[in-house]
Structures are given as structure tokens and as C-alpha cells.
Amino acid sequence: MGLLTMASAARRALLVLTVLPLLALAACGYGSRAVDDGTVKAVAGAPRTDGLDEIRIGYFGNVTHATALVGNRKGFFQKALGGTQAKYAVFDAGPSEIEALNSGSLDIGWIGPSPAVNGYVKSGGKNLRIVGGATSGGVKLVVDPEKIRSVRDVAGKRIATPQLGNTQDVAFLAWAADQGWRVDAESGTGDVTVVRSDNKVTPDAFRSGSVDGAWVPEPTASRMVAEGGKVLLDEAGLWPDAEFVTTNIVVSQTFLAEHPKAVETVLRASV
Q1: Domain spans, the chain
Q2: Inter-residue contact 111 to 247 (CB < 8 Å)
């Protein structure tokens, strides 16, 4: 790893630690909610995994959570779990899923690296454990080509990220710091203005001109391209071998200790 890459990695780590307390604050008031999304029923009379009646699994409705989306819709998790019912909750944002995991209302969750680290830190390392990676890549900086034609044109513009302290927010702040721009992590003001916007509404904000671009996961990036946006940067190009974790699989440490077979079963179905 070169010195430049190491310096960039160090800045990313520092920004994660800087944003963690902010994400903790955001978790208190972020307007996301979980929605029950169970689709495939457990097989009557089939053996239950680890003696459990149900396992509660959470994820986002993003392509970057594809393994969970497909595992649910195709019934892969339910088939592996047999007589244990797989129950699903779809979240809009990381803080609400972390709260669900830490409170014990969720057993296993697909979530980005920054909220995963935040959840671990908030519990003093006692509540959560990352047990696997789920996806890599799928994040882009999409911009209005009439306003932004090169990286230097991003300065002074309004760039959306999904939420305060989420994985893409931290990545954009790190990249902005690499360009030499100063941005206040909490307010999003500075040499670039960071607008925290739900992925569902960002394409509309982009079309109306209220933001000039966005650092977002798929399918939001492709939706913005369909609105006339241009991919200025693929985040994969910033990482060694173009590989970086977009989504981790996280479990409650209590659930892991009590039901390791169940966790292994879900991981095998994910693979």
C-alpha cells in the first residue's frame, strides 16, 4: 500500500471516529421506520434451527443489500431455516436498524460499515458483532454535467448523501478532505455543502436543481443518471484493487452466543 493510500485510509478512519458521535445523535431523531416484509412461510413440521420459532432479519431496500433482498424473495433463508420462521424488517436508515439490534428486537442485520462500527462503539463493544461481508462496490458520485464537469467543479456545489454519518456520507467527507476542502461534518457546510437526503427523494431533488449531485448507492445512482446526471466518480476507483465493503452482516452478540447454529445457517444461505 502506497503512502498516499495509507494517508487516505487514515483520514477515512479519523472521519469515521469524528462522525460516530454525530450519528449517535442522528439516531435519536431520524425519521426511519421498520416495515414487516415476511413473504415465505416456514415449512410445517420441519425441524427448527437451534430450536427457534423465528429469526428476525433486517436490511435496506437498496441494491447494495442484494443478498438479503434476494435471500428473502427467493426463499433461500427460509429454506435453510426449515421450521424456524424468517421474519424481515426493511429499514430506511442505519441508526434505526442499529437501535433495533441493540434493543434486541432484531437478531441479524445487513448494514453499512459506518453504522456497524458506530453500533459497536455505542455499546462499548458488547452488543454487536460483524460476522460477514455482503456486498462490495455499487456507490457513485453522480453530478449535473452542466454545473460540474471535473472534480474541481465540485467545490462550492451542493452534494447529497443519504444521511448524517452513514457509510456514503463518511466516504464523501473523506474524499472531500483528500481534495483539500474543509467541511463541517455535523452541519455539512464548508467548501462543499453536504445535503443529507433520503435516497428515495434524492433523484427528485436532483431533477429540481436543489442539489447539484450526490454520493449514493445503487439504484439511486442509476436513477439520477436517468434524470440526466453523469457519473463523475465510481468509489471503487479510490480503493486498492477496486474493492471496498458496502454492506456488512451484523448480529447481536447475545443472539450469536445463544444460537451460533442459527447464525451459521443464515450466513450459509447468504453465500
Answers
A1: 35-136+246-270, 138-242
A2: yes
